[in-house]
Amino acid sequence: MSVSKKINDLRRKLMRSLTGSVGQSYTTDNSSRTIGVAVKRILIARPNARLGNLLLITPLVQDIVSVFPNCKIDLFVKGYAASVIFRNFENIDQMIQLPGKPFKQLWKYTLQWLSIRKYDYDLVINVDKNSASGRLSSQFSNSHYKIFGDNDENIPSEWDDYFHIAKNPVYNFRKFISHLGYFVYDAPVPLLNLKLTSFEIARGKAVLEGLTESGKKTICLFTYATGAKCYTQAWWQEFYKRLLKNYPNHNIIEVLPLHGTAVFADTIASFYSKDIREIASLFANVTVFIGADSGMMHLASAANTTVIGLFQVTDPEKYRPYGNHSTAIDTSNGNMESWFYRIDIAIRLADLRDKGKLNEATA
Asked: Number of folded domains in the chain?
């Protein structure tokens, strides 16, 4: 482990111990809430730079806008991916972006923290209850109404998918504003959505057509993930043999990770880009995406394609792709035969959807 990583791990542990009780009064005391309070400006705190974690707050943003269509939303994030992800979200106003390496840009880091105090917010939402920076920034902000992300013990009985990382903040938001006098429809949680334009999707289609044989549906593989989530090359080779056997009439392509290493070099067509919207535009045109739990898996979900997520260490119920007939497979259980039973169902549903014979699924 590098010195910088050890310092960061120590910093996270220290921050969590110092912020464990921050904000508890806001989540347990409803006595000071005013029925019918106007909500015009909102701050969402998610100071994290990971692609997946930022994509996973797009359902919350959509849900907020459905309740407060004229509101302005500021985002307190880390890094610069949020600017790309939320480019087409009209209600997003200010991006308060912490630098990715705060120790090298300490002055900018400090200024961004101070800018939280620029506005008086009607509502502040900390997305992740375990984020020390998220809890502190919510506490530091100017607002009487704050959601710190602590779980409401009564909510899981209302929604069996309450602990999903994208749905949890939506349910907390809905529960909170119901106390403010707002009627909340019991609608499905919005899907992850990058809001790709028709031009972007058309460009992705042109790229895909240049990689594949026309007239065939396409299965897209992403073979990389961080740490223990990553499957071995041998595992993927065995998986690929089964794909070829089951789907001889489908194109199979591989999208490469940032480091550009291909598992199936010289075997199948591959695509490489550092532009996440360009990658998502390609995903939007494939029949199905198959990959381990990763930011790319969530990006494929946000491109509204069918996603088959592979899980071996992380919790599928917390991180699983949902909507568009997507499914999660826990590969720590079962075998290739049982996994492909699930994969076959997902691909058949995706094929029917592409033929216009099946509506989009939101479950």
From this structure: 2
Q: Give pLDDT tens digits for 288-346.
A: 999 999 999 999 999 999 999 999 999 999 999 999 999 999 999 999 999 999 999 99
Element (DSSP H or E) covering residue 329: strand 327-330
The residue segments making up the domain with residue 140 are: 3-179
CA nearest 192: which of 19, 362, 5, 12? 362
Same domain, 242 and 285: yes
Residues 6+ apart with CB under 8 A from 116: 43, 76, 96, 137, 140, 141
Task: Give the separation between CA 170 and CA 24, rounded to whole angstroms.
Answer: 19
Query: What's the CA angle centered on 105, arms 104 and 111, to 5 degrees?
Result: 155
Does 362 reside within a domain? no
8 A C-beta contact, residue 127 and residue 60: yes
Convert the pLDDT of each residue in 183-200 to its tens digit: 887 899 999 999 999 999
* C-alpha–C-alpha distance, residues 300 and 314, integer Å: 18
pTM for this structure?
0.90
Judgement on whether residues 75 and 23 belong to the same structural domain of the protein: yes
Are both 62 and 112 inside the same structural domain?
A: yes
**Which tokens belong to 75?**
């985002």
Separation between Cα atoms, residue 26 and residue 45, nearest integer Å: 15
Give exposure, 219-239, as e/b (b: 16+ Cβ within 10 Å): bbbbbbbeeebbbeeebbeeb
Q: Contact, 123 vs 38, CB < 8 A? A: no
Residue whose C-alpha is closest to residue 150's, from 158, 142, 160, 138: 138
324-360: burial string, b at 16+ Cβ within 10 Å, e else: bbbbbbbbeeeeeeebbeebeebbebbbebeeeeeee
> Could you say which of 121, 152, 179 is where a domain stops?
179
Look up residue 312 and give its two tokens. Answer: 């071996």
CA–CA separation, 8 and 51 (whole Å)? 19
For residues 107-130, average pLDDT: 95
Q: What is the DSSP string of 98-164?
A: E-SSTTTSHHHHHHHHHGGGGSB-SEEEES-TT-HHHHHHHHHSB-S-EE--PPPTTSTTT-TTTTS
